[in-house]
């Protein structure tokens, strides 16, 4: 391929596509009820899947699964009877992020995932310090002029079939990974994407836990 995928930093990075499904109770931030992650590395032969995981997450009592969740995501309250707590599910996910390794999280509209992870950071401290790539600004640079840049629009643009279980975390991670790989392939042909730093400049989002804390005035 091109210069982006020849960059040593790009090849040294594990890209982890991540997606949460949530409930959003009135007066509270979004509460995770499902998470999926897919780890990819790029090498001489192309992309390699390093690993994947998915888990339901028991919602708190103030944020139950609703009829709207059942209609859109085909999730029912009964599915969460024996689901792990946020501490258990996110703690298990967090153990995959070995300190000293180079990771970037990849998400569609990454601010959503960034906020969820930051709000749950006590359960996933290593994950909470990993920065993001957002496929929306990446796509806007690669395919300018689309009327919308939602996941469904990008799937249609790249002729990627919608999965039967769209709006479930694992399915959305898989198709987001397909979109990300298509974007990288296109970026490899563009001189402005010369290395990973150039990609981060376009599509990067700093994890909230990595942002400097401002001193209080009073």
Can you offer a commentary on this structure?
The chain has a six-stranded mixed sheet with strand order 3-2-1-4-5-6, sandwiched between helices. It is 35% helix and 20% strand. It is globular and about 50 Å long. It has a single domain (3-209), classed as 2-Layer Sandwich (Nucleotidyltransferase, domain 5), CATH 3.30.420.10. It has helices at residues 3-6, 8-12, 67-73, 86-94, 110-119, 135-142, 151-157, 169-187, 196-203, and strands spanning 14-23, 31-43, 46-56, 103-107, 132-134, 204-205. The protein is an alpha/beta fold.
Question: Which helices and strands appear, and what pairs or packs with what?
Answer:
Elements: H1 3-6, H2 8-12, E1 14-23, E2 31-43, E3 46-56, H3 67-73, H4 86-94, E4 103-107, H5 110-119, E5 132-134, H6 135-142, H7 151-157, H8 169-187, H9 196-203, E6 204-205
Keywords:
alpha/beta, 6 strands, single chain, 20% strand, globular, six-stranded mixed sheet, Nucleotidyltransferase, domain 5
């Amino acid at each position: 391929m091109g210069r982006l995928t020849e960059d040593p930093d790009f090849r040294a990075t594990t890209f982890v596509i991540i997606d949460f499904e949530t409930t959003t109770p009135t007066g509270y931030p979004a509460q995770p009820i499902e998470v999926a992650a897919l780890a990819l590395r790029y090498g001489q032969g192309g992309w390699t899947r390093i690993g994947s995981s998915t888990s339901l997450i028991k919602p708190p009592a103030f944020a139950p699964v609703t009829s709207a969740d059942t209609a859109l995501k085909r999730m029912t309250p009964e599915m969460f009877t024996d689901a792990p707590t946020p501490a258990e599910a996110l703690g298990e996910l967090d153990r995959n992020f070995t300190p000293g390794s180079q990771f970037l999280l990849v998400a569609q509209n990454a601010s959503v995932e960034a906020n969820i992870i930051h709000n749950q950071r006590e359960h996933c401290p290593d994950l909470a310090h990993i920065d993001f790539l957002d496929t929306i600004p990446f796509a806007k640079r690669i395919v300018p002029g689309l009327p919308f840049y939602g996941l469904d629009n990008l799937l249609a643009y790249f002729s990627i079939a919608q999965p039967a279980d769209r709006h479930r975390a694992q399915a959305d991670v898989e198709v987001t990974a397909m979109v990300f790989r298509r974007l990288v392939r296109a970026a490899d042909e563009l001189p402005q994407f010369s290395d990973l730093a150039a990609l981060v400049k376009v599509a990067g989002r700093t994890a909230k836990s990595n942002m400097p804390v401002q001193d209080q005035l009073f």
